[in-house]
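Dear Dr. H.,

I hope your travels went smoothly. While you were away I took the liberty of generating a structure for the chain from your last submission, since the lab meeting agenda had it listed for discussion. I wanted you to have the full record in hand beforehand rather than looking at slides cold. The sequence, exactly as received, is reproduced here:
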Amino acid sequence: MYRFLTLMLVVCVGMSGIPAWAGPDGKVLEEVVVRAQQRKQTLKEVPLAITVLDGDFLQQHRLQRIESVVLATPGLSGWEQGVSTPIFAIRGISSNSFGVGGEASVGLFVDETYRGRINSTSVTMVDVEQVEVLKGPQGTLFGRNSSAGAILIRHNPPTDENSLDLTVETGDNDYLGLQAT
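The corresponding predicted structure, in token form, is as follows:
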């Protein structure tokens, strides 16, 4: 018994000096490119609180309207004021001025163009490349009316190729949905 314990001790001490090599990486994270600071940068280079949703994610989770981005973005809430007037709040900050001169506290930019009026912010999410939700004041980069944050929607750039993407949906209560790009 004594010899067996001595042998086990020698084997254990001898194996403790063997170096362990790192194995191959299992998964590599995809590099996310954003334009939150008016230029292309990787997400890890930007010192802002950003949520990025790409077009594949939007299609996979059936996020077809701008209001549905709320479901996938922490810190963003929204509701509809009237038929086609979405109101957004980032970190609890929103605008209560819905009149003619009222401006939203969350700036909405579609293809780098500001949507200034609250009642013109209804956007269908068709052929979208990426959605970026910037949290916190963005007045320095995007001008006024982005005191709570900004939502940047970028559509896929046009190509020289002819293509057709058609989506047909049916559902309860005679629902029929069509999308074509």
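Two observations you may find useful: The mean pLDDT is 80. The chain has one domain: 33-157+165-180.

With kind regards,
E. W.
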